[in-house]
Amino acid sequence: MVGSSVKSFNQDGLRRPTNKATALTVEQQVCIALRFYASGSFLQVIGDTLGYDKGTVSRVVSDVTDSLIDIKDDFVSWPTDVDSSNRIKCGFYRQSNFPNVFGCIDCTHVRIQAPSDDEPSYVNRKGYHSINVQAVCDFEDKVIEALTSPDVLNTIIPVLAEKISKTLTPLIEEQVKKCIAAHVEPIQKSIDEHDFSIRDHTVKICKLSIRMEQVDKRLKDNNKMLDVWDSELDALHKKTKDMESRLESQEQYSRRTSLRFHNIQVPVDGHGKILHPVNTDDKILSICNGQLGLNLSIDDISRSHVIGKAKYGKCQVIVRFMSNRTRDMVYTNKKYLKYNEDGVFITENLTKFRTDLTKKLSQMKYKNQIHAYWTADGRIFVKRAENSRKEQINSFEDISDIERDITSPTNQQQSDAEK
């Protein structure tokens, strides 16, 4: 194989002008150089491996390199005819589906030792000495154009040894294939079948990829629509919550002249049911004038009625007064009922939502989580401690904030310290 390959070399330049039997043949010199190109090892190591002196290896590598330079145009050449150009373009298109590609070009800096002549010219932008090398190859990785300076080639031969070896490999492989064609053909056939199967699967994968991209696009579009709908829903929820809050405030405002009297004695039957009608106006006037120290008449009451069921002959009575002023006088004097025998007490006529808030605050006060709570003009206030400032409660979130503060580590430490 080496013998057939060296025919392309300038054999006259490699033959030694001597009749000694120890002179190296052209084939031996090519083998030494190929060993050096392929391994990139030191000349001393190549000599020790093959049994030659270091100086001999150095001269052989230099001579073979010069012969490579002489014959490079036979292997490294720029296509000059239309057929060659089209073949390269078609090859690139088959490999990468990229039309009108004539070659792949690249450059690299090959590190060298600092030369003695014109040393600054060899310093690159990264601060070390190198030679800038450019090469162009076709779709079969064959070099079709490169720098031709002998100095450059002598410098980059160790680095490009593998590429040079690949350029020479097809020549050697041609001889090998002739010898083992019978063994290679079945393997090649199997490879071709696998290649066909791979291409078929590649097409299917591409189709599936396209479908996945379409599905992904639809999902993204749907997600965008969902985001828009979520924004609209959030806006509607916010608007609904605002309307509910305004409606609840309006409902509370409509009760501004009303009060609730608790534990009012009412007539009941043997089953504990209220015997209607109940003259609630007289009962309310009796409490207001007799126990609260007021001087009200029937004209001060717009309407009163029993609400809910009786328990132990007592129930709640809602009273709507004729004016807010009268209502405030009654609510202000409720303190005089604190120790009455019947347990009568007065509260504001709150909406269900605000009533639920006061129930929650009542539970917290029972657990000593707050100091006090009260209502005024439909508003709810709370004091966490005796000396703390009052806070207005508008929602269950406000109560949750108080509970979080109570259970926070800082407050727990303060509580433990007080205990």
TrEMBL record:
GO terms for cellular component: cytoplasm; nucleus. Residues 407-419 have a biased composition (Polar residues). Residues 393-419 are annotated as: Disordered. Keywords: Cytoplasm, Hydrolase, Metal-binding, Nuclease, Nucleus. Its main location: cytoplasm. Signal peptide: none annotated. The keyword Oxidoreductase does not apply. Residues 105-144 form the DDE Tnp4 domain. Belongs to the HARBI1 family. This is Putative nuclease HARBI1. It comes from Mytilus edulis.
